[in-house]
TrEMBL record:
Keywords: Hydrolase. This is Glycoside hydrolase family 65 protein. Gene3D superfamilies: 1.50.10.10, Glycoside hydrolase, family 65, N-terminal domain, Maltose phosphorylase, domain 3. Residues 324-690 form the Glycoside hydrolase family 65 central catalytic domain. NCBIfam families: PRK13807.1. Residues 14-267 form the Glycoside hydrolase family 65 N-terminal domain. It comes from the Bacteria.
Length: 768
């Protein structure tokens, strides 16, 4: 770990004591969201210290023109930016004519809390201003899950040593920039500014993509809990900002407060000419309910989420805090309400990476959403890719592929590739495999086959066509090879025959052929429709099969393992344990050239294949490959520790599995990769859930049946989780020597525990 200031707590993320060096990290860690919008935990009041300002609206992006010193055919023309949205949280505050700024005050009793159980963020402190006035401040903020266009702030100031004239200056401001803008340009064009009484509305439009958003606010001023029902003393306006001013005379120990409602109405959801009207409706509804009712609704909404999604851990507070933080952030990022949306790698916590969709969604996130929500949520994520199939075919065509071959993008907002690193955009083609695997995984878990004849088969065909064309027949090997790729391990670029890529390519073709035959037999009308649309004939499928049956996989007889790529053994295989810790993380200490020549693995690569296709290999094979590759793995990808935790658990190496679990669950809380200030690793958080459910719980689906091989780290007294399996909710509670099952459903469920069949009746406790 590289930081250790978050206090252990079962349900909250807590920071005590003000440290300017931690501000940007805490802005990430205390981020809030509601699936439709989110924001970093920036201070509402002015702050002249280092800060990373960030508010974000789901689905709104900007195609920032790629900035490189060279160009190659097929190169993406833009890098999709997750936009820093207009700021509605701002409240400048002056106290006895001095600006409240924690960078210029003496601060004590500073405390932040992100209450994950109830879904609110609180910050409190005492400050001594340079004019000698002492105040205590208490701020609570939340983004409503019930009304997801609404955010709420309750900002209280209490003079401690003298009376004070307190001026609140709330504002909405569309004059924002992205920290990562390629050309230092603004992405928002102001269109309209309106205000009346205590309400203000700034409408702006993104350049190029033309998303319209109305950023709004409504303010109420209170003294000792009583609404003063006052209007602003003045309203300062510019072309992209409105700021009100309210002055309150507060005696010593009085509490002056502003309750601010704010948020966004967006043209994705409303007519662009009616955004202000929609915002007024949001405000009217919020006023009718009031702050206390809105907060109660928030608590109830989060209680409903936790009822299904919670994982309990007994006897290990840091482990408990870690998994709940991961589950909380996943639900803040994506709730499955809108099929147009997806799960960005930073969610609403930062700008890095750009785009809203990576292969992380299919490889890591879908299992979490399938098991903790209604299966329609996971189906929406699959449908998202189906809806972008046309773009995937266009992406492949730009690279010279034909006949409906589909290459899904590494990074996208609308289906078009928008990643601007050559070795990722053109070479990390394994992402196609994760999308096909997700279709298989969805059917395996839910039993809902209807998705495949309705939509999924066309995706599988496009992907199979790509792999068929991407493979090259080697007369030297008398087998098919795949050249010039980057596998999941991004510390090897432009390699030949990456094992994982070759293996999943073969599997994709075989699975597509299998599903074509099944649909032909069981859904003949759909089969006829699809074959006519994609113009697929038997001769082409024979060619696919030839590639799959004759795919080459690099293998070392000496070591008895599949090789990451053809030339892996040419490297100096110095283990990570023998690497000077001062050289870590290597992605921040070494040149890229040195990394590429090294044996060090960023994340599970061969082992990723063993994770996806566990039943294709023996446990002895897994052990041999784990022992060969894990010592060379630096785990500098957030996606790495979870896979290794699951596989260590399978091998019975519980201490190692536990260590990897802590690393994945507290990756951001403890800042293992020294980058948390840039934002959280949202998509890998689903891997934390998997490390408990699939790793320690040993959950698998085999032959339409749930299987469990429960294990428990010695640091834990017990743990429990719930699984929504085919519309029945199974609760699993594991303690040393026993596992308990209870079922919420209307029919019995047979599960297999350590190889033994067990029948669980509804509302009955079964102990194994």
């Amino acid at each position: 770990m590289n930081q250790d200031y978050i206090l252990p707590d079962n349900w909250s993320i807590i920071e005590e004591g003000f440290d300017a060096e931690r501000v940007e990290s805490s802005e990430s860690l205390f981020s809030i969201g509601n699936g439709a919008m989110g924001q970093r935990a920036n201070f509402e009041e002015s702050y002249s210290g280092h800060t990373f300002q960030g508010s974000y609206i789901a689905g709104v992006y900007y195609p920032d023109k790629t900035k490189v010193g060279w160009w190659k055919n097929g190169y993406p023309e833009y890098f999709a930016k997750v936009l820093n949205a207009p700021n509605w949280i701002g409240i400048d505050i002056t106290i006895n004519d001095e600006i409240l700024d924690l960078a210029k005050c003496k601060v004590k009793n500073f405390r932040r809390e992100l209450n994950m159980q109830e879904g609110w963020y609180n910050r409190s402190f005492e400050a001594t201003l340079q004019n000698g006035t002492e105040v205590s401040v208490n701020v609570t903020r939340f983004l409503s899950l019930v009304a997801d266009e609404l955010g709420v702030i309750n900002y209280e100031v209490k003079p401690l040593n003298r009376a004070a004239q307190i001026t609140f200056k709330p504002y909405v401001d569309a004059g924002v920039k992205n920290m990562d803008a390629n050309w230092e340009e603004k992405f928002w064009e102001p269109l309209d500014v309106q205000h009346s009484a205590n309400e203000a509305f700034v409408t702006a439009r993104t350049f190029k993509t033309h998303f319209n958003a109305c950023t709004f606010m409504h303010n109420s001023i209170l003294l000792n809990g009583t609404d003063l029902e006052i209007l602003p003393g003045n309203a300062d306006t510019t072309k992209d900002k409105v700021q009100f001013s309210y002055t309150v005379e507060a005696s010593q120990n009085d509490t002056a407060a502003i309750v601010k409602f704010g948020g966004y109405t967006v043209s994705m959801n409303h007519d662009k000419d009616k955004l202000v009207h929609a915002a007024k409706n949001v405000i009217a509804n919020a006023k009718a309910k009031g702050y206390d009712t809105l907060l109660d609704e928030q608590k109830a909404a989060w209680a409903s989420i936790w009822e299904m999604a919670d994982i309990t851990i007994e006897g290990d507070v840091k482990a408990q805090q870690g998994i709940r933080f991961n589950i909380f952030q996943l639900n803040q990022t994506y709730l499955g309400k809108d099929p147009r949306l997806n799960i960005g790698p930073k969610g609403f916590t930062g700008e890095k990476y750009g785009g809203s969709t990576y292969w992380d969604t299919e490889a890591y996130c879908i299992p979490f959403y399938m098991a903790t929500k209604d299966q329609q949520v996971a189906r929406n994520l699959l449908t998202y890719r189906y809806n972008q199939l046309g773009k995937a075919i266009e992406n492949a065509a730009k690279l010279g592929f034909t006949n409906g071959a589909a290459l899904y993008p590494m990074v996208t907002m609308n289906g078009e590739e928008c990643h601007n690193e050559w070795e990722i955009t053109f070479e990390e083609i394994h992402r196609n495999g994760a999308i096909a695997f997700a279709i298989y995984n969805y059917y395996r878990f839910t039993g809902d086959y209807s998705y495949i004849p309705e939509k999924g088969l066309e995706v599988l065909i496009g992907i199979a066509r790509f792999w068929h064309q991407r493979a090259t027949f080697s007369t030297n090997r008398n087998q098919f090879v795949i050249l010039g790729v980057t596998g999941p391990n991004e510390y090897e670029n432009n390699v030949n025959n990456n094992f994982y890529t070759n293996y999943i390519a073969k599997w994709c073709i075989d699975y597509a052929l299998e599903q074509i035959a099944k649909v032909q037999e069981d859904y003949p009308a759909d089969h006829a429709r699809i074959m006519a649309d994609v113009k697929l004939d038997a001769a082409e499928m024979v060619n696919w099969k030839n590639v799959a049956d004759n795919m080459y996989f690099p293998y070392s007889e000496k070591h008895g393992v599949y090789l990451q790529q053809d030339n892996f053994l040419d490297k100096d295989l110095v283990k990570v344990a023998d690497l000077d810790t001062a050289q870590r993380p290597i992605n921040q200490k070494w040149s890229w050239d040195r990394i590429l020549r090294s044996p060090y693995i960023k994340q599970a690569d061969v082992l990723q294949g063993f994770y996806f296709f566990e039943d294709h290999f023996t446990k002895e094979q897994l052990e041999k490959h784990f022992d060969f590759y894990e010592p060379l793995t630096v785990h500098e990808s957030s996606l790495s520790p979870c896979v290794h935790s699951i596989q260590a658990a399978v091998l019975g190496r519980m201490e190692q599995a536990y260590t990897f679990y802590l690393r994945t669950s507290r990756l951001d809380l403890d800042d293992y990769n020294k980058e948390v200030k840039e934002g959280l690793h949202i998509t890998s958080m689903a891997g934390t859930w998997m490390s408990i459910v699939e790793g320690f719980g040993g959950m698998r689906v085999k032959n339409d049946t749930l299987h469990f091989e429960p294990r428990i780290p010695q640091q834990w007294k017990g743990y429990s989780f719930k699984i929504n399996f085919r519309n029945q909710v199974l609760k699993v509670s594991v303690h040393p020597g026993e596992t308990k099952f209870t079922l919420e459903g209307d029919r019995e469920l047979t599960v297999v525990v350590n190889g033994r069949e067990v029948t669980v009746e509804p509302n009955t406790l079964v102990t194994v």
